[in-house]
Each structure stands twice: as structure tokens, then as C-alpha cells.
Specification:
368 residues; single chain; 21 strands; elongated; 2 domains; alpha/beta; Alpha-1-antitrypsin, domain 1; 10-stranded mixed β-sheet; 16% helix
Length: 368
């Protein structure tokens, strides 16, 4: 390879990291799915649900076209809550493949904080089954190329209600979907209330036809620094919700009643980016020096009507007190995602998600 140089008697080796991930809420049309590296194909075993039409992604667009959105590589990465933050597990899968190829201890310069965080994260383990993603690698002379890809279809058994102009997110009109009241029993089976304190603090779950996966949405007035902090809070609140359901006086909070509303923005995006914070980073084994030359990721996502300590205990105590004041006084619940919130996709039996989206603005939402 032209340009290879020795450095302190170490053989310098270049690593290409290429990551592609496609998530959608229905079976993907491969002709419109965006860029697939080296024609890697994964078998989609999830069939389309009757009367739910297939959708296609928009053409892939560089992240630079979305000034209010960022990609993060791990659940432990710090998030900028004033922007949308997109996470997907494929970056960690591909990096783990690189480590398996190197297969010996290595040292990362302390200045490369993003690479160190990527290297230390274990939150990718067991978030998908082995047959739900593809990892491949190539070694060509002094070059290593690692790839990770998955596609997942999570359709609903039946469609929820679709709206063109019912929702304003931060006062900007966006397309939305959801449910109102108890008029459609099949729709009611798709949505569960996992925790409810008030209309600005709640957790709901959307049930896809594939019962091994779940879609969690979380709206809160609390501030968070990292997605794993959000995930920990959701886990705690779900436990609280299970306890609440045993209390007959507040059981109504976990039932969808006639005047209740759940309204969620629609999403449809296909974004790719090169991680400049990883490009040029190096790490050294005893005899070799490695340089990351390219770290790329593409994430495509659709969500619509077709188919996220002591302080915690203290907050629970306050919530319990508020609930006690509302004994036998059910009121309409307006669970409307019109302010920043979190979406995550995960296996039902896994603690960590394989996809996370902190939503701060309308940049990734569907609009009229």
C-alpha cells in the first residue's frame, strides 16, 4: 500500500470503519433503502401486516444538512439536549469486530476521548439476536475494513389514527398519529401506559406485531446528560408503574379512557455521516500503530401510524402524594408529544436499546 510509514519501529496500519444500519417500521424496499456497502444483504423474516402498506425512505442525506441534529456513538455519550440526538448500535458492533481482528491489548491516547468511550462501552451486548444483524470484515494488506448492518421491521397489527394538522411541536405544525379514547379495541391493544404522573411526565409502549421487540416513548420535565441516564430513569419508572397499578385508587392512570389522547409526531429520515471525532484517531499494540481513516454510519428511520437512586425514590414519594389527592377522580390524560421527548427501540427482554432518539426539534419529523 502506498504511503505506509514506519513509526518508532511500529508497523502503521490503517482501519476503515464502515457502518450501515436501517431501521424502519415496515418491511423495507431495497431499491429505496439508501446506500448498502458492498451489497451486504440481510434476510428480513418479518412479513408485512395485512392492510399496512410498505413505505420507502427518502434519499440518503448528509448530516451536515441537519444543523439541529447530531449522531452519537454510544449510550454513554453526552447528548446535546437542545438538538436531536440519534444513536444506533451498529457503530459499537463494527468497533467490536475491529477489536476481535486486532486480538491483542492496545493503548488509546487519552486525547481521543470519543474513541476511548467507544472502546469502553458494553451497552451493545445482547441488544439484538445474532440472526438480526450482519457483521463482516476484510483484511487487505495493511487495511482492515469492518462493517455492521441490520434491518428491522416493526409493524402494528392495525393502523393507528393519522393526522395532518393536529399537533404542534414547539409551536410548529407537524404530521402525527395516535389514538383518542376507547373507540377502537384493536388500536387499544397497541398502546400501553407504563408510567403516568401527569401530562408532561409519562412512559408509553407501542406494541408491534413482533412481540419480541417494543417501542418506548418517554416524556419528562427532568434534564438528562446521556441516553443511558434516560434509559435508567425509564426502567425505574416502569417499576413504579407496576406498583401503581395495584392501587385501585390510581389504577385509572394506566387505562386509556374515553377522553384520553395520545398524539405522536411522525418521523421519516435517512441520514449518513462521517465521524470527524474518530477520523485520524490512533491506537497502538506492542508492535503496530493503527489509524482510523474513515468512520461512517447511515441511519434510516420511520415512525408513523403503521407501525422510550435516592432521587428516584424521592420523586416517587412526591408522585405518590400527588396521586393520593386524586383518589377516585379520574381526569382526561392528554399524552401529547409536543415538547422534547425520547424514543427507544429494544428487545422486550433486553435492558438496553439498539436505537435511541432524543427529540428536541422538528427537523426529523414529517411535515405537510
Amino acid at each position: 500500500m502506498v504511503g505506509i510509514k514506519l513509526k518508532n519501529n511500529m508497523l502503521k496500519q490503517t482501519i476503515f470503519l464502515a457502518f450501515t444500519i436501517t431501521f424502519l417500521s415496515c418491511k423495507n424496499d431495497t431499491k429505496n433503502s439508501g446506500k448498502v456497502i458492498n451489497d451486504i444483504i440481510t434476510n428480513d423474516t418479518n412479513s408485512s401486516v395485512k392492510n399496512i402498506e410498505e413505505r420507502s425512505f427518502p434519499k440518503e442525506t448528509d448530516l451536515s444538512e441537519y444543523p439541529k441534529t447530531e449522531f452519537i456513538t454510544t449510550l454513554e455519550s453526552k447528548i446535546n439536549t437542545s438538538k436531536n440526538n440519534v444513536y444506533c448500535v451498529t457503530m459499537l458492533y463494527a468497533w467490536n469486530e475491529v477489536k476481535n481482528i486486532v486480538n491483542e491489548p492496545f493503548k488509546i491516547d487519552s486525547n481521543f476521548k470519543h474513541l476511548t468511550l467507544l472502546n469502553n462501552s458494553s451497552s451493545f451486548k445482547d441488544v439484538l439476536n445474532p440472526d438480526e444483524y450482519i457483521i463482516s470484515s476484510e483484511i487487505d494488506g495493511f487495511n482492515i475494513k469492518a462493517k455492521a448492518e441490520f434491518k428491522k421491521s416493526l409493524t402494528f397489527q392495525t393502523e393507528l389514527d393519522s393526522h395532518k394538522d393536529r399537533l404542534k411541536f414547539n409551536n410548529e405544525k407537524v404530521e402525527s398519529f395516535g389514538i383518542t379514547g376507547i373507540y377502537n379495541y384493536e388500536q387499544l391493544k397497541i398502546i400501553s401506559i407504563l408510567y403516568y404522573k401527569n401530562d408532561n411526565n409519562f412512559v408509553i409502549k407501542l406494541h408491534p406485531k413482533d412481540s419480541n421487540h417494543e417501542i418506548i416513548l418517554f416524556k419528562s420535565e427532568k434534564k438528562f446528560d446521556k441516553m443511558n441516564d434516560i434509559n435508567s430513569e425509564i426502567i425505574k419508572l416502569i417499576v413504579q408503574g407496576k406498583e401503581d397499578k395495584q392501587n385501585e385508587n390510581i389504577k385509572w392512570k394506566y387505562e386509556i379512557l374515553e377522553e384520553d389522547e395520545i398524539i405522536i409526531p411522525k418521523f421519516n429520515f435517512n441520514i449518513e455521516t462521517i465521524y470527524k471525532d474518530l477520523t485520524g484517531n490512533t491506537f497502538d499494540t506492542k508492535e503496530k500503530s493503527y489509524t482510523i481513516e474513515r468512520a461512517w454510519q447511515r441511519t434510516a428511520f420511520i415512525l408513523d401510524e403503521k407501525g422510550t437512586e435516592v432521587e428516584s425514590e424521592a420523586e416517587f414519594a412526591v408522585a405518590t402524594e400527588e396521586m393520593a389527592e386524586e383518589v377516585n377522580k379520574p381526569k382526561p390524560k392528554k399524552m401529547i408529544f409536543d415538547k422534547p421527548f425520547f424514543i427507544m427501540l429494544k428487545k422486550t427482554k433486553s435492558q438496553n436499546p439498539y436505537f435511541g432518539l432524543w427529540v428536541a426539534n422538528t427537523e426529523l419529523m414529517s411535515k405537510n
